[in-house]
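>> received
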Amino acid sequence: MGARTGRPDGWFHIQSAGWGTSFDFGVYTVDRGQQALVQVAALPLLVVTVVALVSLMFFVLSVLDRQPWQLLLYSGLLLVTTLGAAGYYHSKARFLLPAFPLLLPAAVGLARAGRAKAATVLVTLVAFSTYFGGYLLLIWTKSP
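>> returned
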């Protein structure tokens, strides 16, 4: 984006101009996350908050697992740009989809857990994902 806009902060410039978001080092994200956990929040807000917290936990596990620095840098930059931005809270989980290296500790854990435990975890996650996707499709009126 920097090459297209001619600015080193091209991504943030477009986000600011087009969607009114800015970079506040995570103040907005922490505030909205606290509100979602303290107040009775809608399901998507709770899911976004849980995804943000779990992604931070997986990043710490990735560092402790001594993943290659390239994967840590990639994941860390995605976390910083997503969680450090102020703006539409509902899209934060979606912006973390490319951070697949964060799931490597979970994949290792599932591989070591055995078939029965891994199947239980995966079936539970598939069931919740199916329910949540249906909820977003049929009930939720805002963009995820």
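>> Residues 115-138 form the longest helix (24 residues).
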